[in-house]
Amino acid sequence: MNELWNHSRKISTMSQSVPLFVTAPSADHQVINRFLLHFRDWSDLPTSDHAHVVAARNTYNLEESELKPTVSPVPSDTPNGWSGASLTDVEAFVRDAQAEDPQSSIFFLLDDQGVRDKTVIAAERRSYDETEELTDEYNKVRVPSDEAYTVWVNLDIGNVGWEDYCDEETGGDEDGWWVYGEDGGADIMTDEDREKRDEAIKKLEESGDA
Model-level pTM? Predict the structure, then answer.
C-alpha cells in the first residue's frame, strides 16, 4: 500500500446526510425514489432519511446548513443540473465546495450503469497516512444500491475502513477504482424493517412514483 491512507475521516457521530449526485440521464424520479427508500434507516422513523440529492451546480448547496436529507417521493419535475456530468466533474465540484471545511469525505453518484444494474458509486477522498490531510484524489467503488446505506454509515462513523468493504488484495488501480468485496455491506435490516421498505416501494410503484 502506498503513502495514502485509505480509511474514511474518523468522526464521533454520524453526519446528517451524504451528497448524492445523479448523473444518469436515464434516472427519472422513479429511479431516484427507489434509491432513496433503500438509503433510509427503517429502524429510526420518521427521522430516517440521509441522502441529499444535489440538484444544482452551485457550491453553496454543499454548505452544512444546506445538506438536508431529500425525502422520497420526489416529484417528476425535480430539477437536476448534474444529468450528463462525469465523475471527474463531480469530484472537482465536491473538492471546491468543501475546500474550507470538508464535513465529510464521502459522496455517492448514480450513473447510467448504476440504473441498469442497481448499483451506485461510493467515492471517498484520500488522505496522507502521516498527516491525514486530504488529497485531491478519490477512492471509488461500485456497490449494490441496497447496501449503500450500510456502507456509508460504517465509513462515516469510522466503524470500518475503506478496504474492509473492498478487495484489499486487489487494491485500487491508478485511477482509484477498487473492487467491491464478497462480504460487502452486511444486511443489518430486520424482517420488520424490510417489510416496511418493500411496502413503501410497492405504494410508490402503484402511484407511478417508483
Answer: 0.86
